[in-house]
Amino acid sequence: MTPIPLPLLLAATLTGTTFAVAPSTDDDPRPRPNIVFIMADDHCMQAISCYGASAGPGVVETPGIDRIAREGMRFDRASVTNAICGPSRATILTGKHCHRHGFATNGQRFDGSQQTFPKLLQQAGYRTEVVGKWHLSSPPSGFDRSEVLVGQGDYWNPLLVVDGERSRREGHTTDLIHDAAVARLEALAAADANHDGDDDGDDTPPFLLMVHHKAPHRNWMPHPRHLDLFTDGDLPVPDSFFDAPDRRSPAGAIQTMRIDRDLAWLYDLKIDPTTLHPDEEVSRLDRWMANELARVPQEALDAYDEAHREENAALAAAIEDMSPRDLALWKFQRYAKNYLRTAQGVDDSVGGILEALDRLGLADDTIVVYTSDQGWYLGEQGWYDKRWMYEPSFRTPLLVRWPGVVEPGSISDALAQNLDFASTFLEAAGIEPPADLQGRSLLPVLRGESGADETLRDAAYYRFEESRGAHTVPRHEGVATRDAKLIRHLDLLDERGESILELYRLDVDPEERDNLAGRPEHADLQRRMLERLEALRKHYDAPENVPASAPDRDI
Ligand code: CA
Predict the structure, then answer these.
(1) Cα(374) to centroid of ligand 1, in Å?
(2) Ligand 1 center to 217 CA (angstroms)
(3) Do the Cβ atoms of 156 and 289 come closer than 8 Å?
(4) Left if phi > 0, otherwise alpha if psi is -120 to 50, otherwise beta: which for 52?
(5) How far is the CA of 463 from the centre of ligand 1 (A)?
(6) What's the CA-to-centroid distance between 29 and ligand 1, angstroms?
(7) Residue 545: which pLDDT band, with cuts at 50, 70 and 90?
(8) Which of 81, 432, 467, 528 could form a disulfide with 552 if both were Cys (CB 3.0 to 4.6 A apart)?
(9) How remote is the CA of residue 518 from the centroid of ligand 1, in Å?
(10) Positive or negative, the Cα torsion across 441, 446, 447, 451?
């Protein structure tokens, strides 16, 4: 097949807490708080300044998110039960592991008829709304109003569905979602005219507003106002960037998420591949992207062109003589900078939502949560994407502001999970979480109760099922405690026919570069972690582990 020429216009475009608040009593009911739940897609802790962004001090600045940390609680050990978009969203809504809510891979369809926390809040009188990315195949349910992207959503001029009605909106998606969120806050506040907080029964009910950003999900098309960020030099490269993919275990070689190999030139890296390799076939993603760009506003195309023109021309001139190592580093810089620029739009939105809450007089009565549907690889191990139970994707940012309850500037190292949000919001609203929820309420942690961090959970269960989807990461499950992690590969067997294991001591090896599984000197730790895993499997009623009949490694 001959290369498809791209339009000329694309040529160059492209801890611990001590502060305690007395719990409510029947005699002194706390007014039910509003809840603003802001979630990004694929935003990792390494890209947030209050978490000590991996780019180093002063390079990445996220003042909006940092404000929540300053005025609320920063969770340093929060994680997800399955590091992939749709399943994480379903876990958040239901408070259940994927095998219970039935949405374990992105190819499935969420059964919207099941119990979710927005439905329970709605039944209890809350006004419930969602704005932004939905991505569960079935339409939103349990919301008085929904304004959501179709599917993954586009970065420019996206299709939105407002209460079932489709329309295309002009602009950058992050800003459109933000503007919609602020408009909804204004509408909700206006309807709050009767709110005097005196609990005499005549108040307008509180609200839940879920704001789900698409950014900084692939394919990293920032708003032009952020293109001048990170232009002063190179971002630091993670220590593990050049680690061999199978350094930890054979499983590591079975993936298609390598920055040096798997990013597409135009789709991901914003450079026309025909200027680099005129004789090579253009990839499927790049052909798709060439069409997609026809919908991007000309001003944005011009801005991308201007931002990348010099670097793109220099690469085209040099690529034949570049070492694989230098080319990998070039791709890392281009990818990571556009990822961070795209994330900056999300931070602008967080800051803007906090300002709107101030302006509307809602801040004191509102819980604000910032999180992501999971973490992300920002070059660690030479990777982008997520899926693995390793720390960069397993862990997720989580910040909570709740005036009068959460001590400003507090830090928690509780092993909180996205599994816990449903129970937390229900309990905050004065609703007893149903017995079938599998998470724990974070309220004792948020209140700063003594010992709450430790008693919340001493081990977290994880299960990834989407080996046949994009990026071909093998199915695995695992258990993480404060100090150790054990991963069991469900379809990868050793020569004895047993599941391949990985074992890490997080206390001395937080980057998980030294797999201790099978080493005699760590046999006791391995045995104890396997026991923890089995106990959690039983506790959560996890499915039987049946290895796939056909190995996924050929996919
Ligand atoms: Ca995601």
Answers:
(1) 6
(2) 7
(3) no
(4) left
(5) 16
(6) 37
(7) confident
(8) 467
(9) 33
(10) positive
529 has pLDDT over 80? yes
Please give the average per-residue pLDDT across 133-145, as a whole number.
97
| Residue 331 amino acid letter | K
pLDDT digit string (tens) for 170-227?
999 999 999 999 999 999 999 876 555 555 555 689 999 999 999 999 999 999 999 9
pLDDT tens per residue across span 159-168: 999 999 999 9
Strand order in the sheet with 366-372: 165-168, 159-162, 145-149, 127-132, 207-212, 34-40, 366-372, 398-401, 73-75, 410-412
Q: Say if residue 216 is preceded by a cis peptide, omega within 30 of 0.
A: yes
* pLDDT of 9 strictly over 80: no
Decide the pairing of beta strands 484-493 and 499-505.
antiparallel
CA 453 to ligand 1 centroid distance, Å: 26
- Residue 485's closest CA among 381, 392, 402, 370? 392
385 CA distance to ligand 1 middle (Å)? 9
Expressed in angstroms and rounded, the spacing between residue 494 Cα and the centre of ligand 1 is: 31
Look at residues 68, 360, 96, 101 and name the one whose alpha carbon lies nearest to residue 207. Answer: 360
- Of 308, 278, 305, the C-alpha closest to 293 is 305
Report the distance separating Cα 525 and Cα 380, nearest Å.
26
